[in-house]
Amino acid sequence: MSMNGANEFRPNIVAFCCNWCSYAGADLAGTNRLEYPAEVKIVRVPCSCRVNPLFVLRAFQRGADGVIICGCHPGDCHYTSGNYFARRRMTLLFSMLDYLGVEKARTRVEWVSAAEGAKFASVMKDFVQTVAKLGENRRLEDIRCKRQ
Amino acid sequence: MQETMIERAKALMESKSVVRVVGWRIGEFGYDVTPSVFTTVDDLNGNFVYNDFCGSNLSKYLVRLSCEEGKVLVFLKPCDTYSFTQLLKEHRIHRDNVYAIGIPCNGKIDIEKVRQAGGEGITAIRSEGSTVIARTLYGEKKFDRKEVLSERCLNCKSKKHVTYDELLGEEGEVLDSHRFDMVEKLEAMSSNERFEFWRNELSRCIRCNACRNVCPACTCEKCIFDNDNSGVSNKAAADSFEENMFHIIRAFHVAGRCTDCGECSRVCPEHIPLHLLNRKFIKDINELYGEYQAGSDMETVSPLTSYTIEDDDPSIVNRRGGGHDA
After folding, report:
1. What ranges do the domains of chain A cover?
2. Which of A43, B82, B249, B311 qualifies as a FRET site for B259, CA 20 to 30 Å off?
């Protein structure tokens, strides 16, 4: 979370991107000179199913206001079935976060292929806007990790 | 039932079929019963007990005991057999080394509920039909059995024994329970109300790890919560985040394997309704990936280690019912 001069809230977004599709998609967005918000911090993972539920919680703990997980489209996983497992896991995790009263719009899973640079940029723009509207993450924050 | 069980245990021990018995040991009062290992016939006489307070699930002890020399005899209530089967399915128990006797159960009493209903200074307690009679320092008191049954027994899911070598009593049936009622009630709240509800519950957590230690699904040799770098290995939670994270991860680690035996809530010294977290996962799995009861058989693949191509995207969470903030 940071504030610029105009007192505008700029969320911290962590994006877990799969090495084979979404990370390449982000690369493509870059080489095509497509703009996407600088609030997004990308973490490269070998596969979307590498994302342990703990990673998501840890990101929130360390000050993320939103977490997005990007992987290959279902059926296109480099490891055949990784994203299918990730899909079930993340569905259950997001549902649980919602159950605990954490705003569900703070978490998202999107499928972005290596050819979808434009989609990557638009997904990130949209997600940053959604989280910016929600404001600072207060319900899953660790005050010890907040920088004053 | 207690006498029959002791007879069987003695007979098996004397014939050298088993060398140890896992059961319940009587405490100072009738209601403080502890799980225990009996190795002699003398010990069984007088110390072995089976009553309304033998709530603890003995299946987890088999993880270690079945590795030891000699066969172990275990008494399993219907809901314990689910945990037992789930552990067998995960290859955590040496089946050859266990002799399992299924025993009937008609619900266990929650001593806390008796105390709250005015049962102070109890010296002895027994039940007759649908009444529970407690002898206290202030005279005899009667309670309605339904009022003092533990929460998990009020919503008993099954009286059927899944796995056993021998059965004492009758074979029961899988029941129609209303165990998801409270989960539904929570889901219907707004997210602010849910947040308040869970803050209120989870902020009482003292991180004693009892829920993890007792859980028959938590059998990892190295637990993530014992890692000093996990950020949640402290004794007392220093921050609200830790409580949330600990309980989300604890419930997530047993998702798809939790048989809903309710031990976590039973042992919680702060009476946090932890089963509501597990039941949420069970309910979600049932709704999204088909009905699944962990431990009901050895074959069905766990929903979190399998998938179908038609599964819903995680965005389904946004579209599903449940309260929203205005």
Report:
1. 10-136
2. B311
pLDDT digits (tens, 9 = 90+) for B221-241: 888 888 777 666 666 666 778
pLDDT in tens, B86-127: 999 999 999 999 999 999 988 899 888 888 888 788 888 888
Q: Which of B226, B269, B277 is CA-nearest to residue B248?
A: B277
Q: Which of these ranges, A130-134, B1-5, B13-17, B319-323, has the smallest mean pLDDT?
A: B319-323
Residues in A closer than 8 angstroms to B285, CB to CB, are: 92
What is the pLDDT confidence band of residue B325, given thresholds at 50, 70 and 90?
Answer: very low
Q: Which residues of B touch A87 (CB under 8 A)?
A: 307, 311, 313-314
Q: Which residue of B has its CA nearest to A62?
A: B241
The DSSP line for B287-326 is HHH----TTS-SSSPPGGG---TTPPPTTHHHHS-S----
CB contact under 8 A, A104 and B248: no
Contact B252 A144 (CB under 8 A): no
Q: What residue spans of B160-231 are helical by DSSP H?
A: 181-188, 191-202, 210-214
Q: How many cross-chain Cβ pairs, A to B, lie less than 8 Å apart?
A: 114
Look at residue B242 in the predicted model and tell me its pLDDT.
80
User: What is the fold, at CATH topology level, of the domain defined by A10-136?
Assistant: Rossmann fold (3.40.50)
**Which sequence spans correspond to the domains of chain B?**
1-108+157-177, 110-149, 178-326
The rounded distance, in Å, linking the Cα atoms of A85 and A71 is 11
Indicate yes or no: CB of B304 within 8 angstroms of CB of A58.
Answer: no
Nearest chain A Cα to B244, which residue? Answer: A140
Q: Do A87 and B314 touch (CB under 8 A)?
A: yes
pTM of this structure:
0.90
Please indicate if any CB of chain A lies within 8 Å of the CB of B244.
yes
Strand residue runs (E) in chain B: 20-25, 34-38, 72-76, 98-102, 122-128, 131-136, 139-144, 166-167
**Closest Cα in chain B to A97:** B248
Residue of B198, B230, B307 to mutate, testing the A interface (most A Cβ within 10 Å of its Cβ): B307
Residue with tokens 């959604």: A130
Mutation target among A57, A80, A88, A137 for the B interface, most CBs of B within 10 A: A88
State pLDDT tens for residues A45-77. 999 999 999 999 989 988 899 999 999 999 999
**Residue B36 banded pLDDT, cuts 50, 70, 90:** very high
B288–chain A Cβ distance below 8 A for any pair: yes
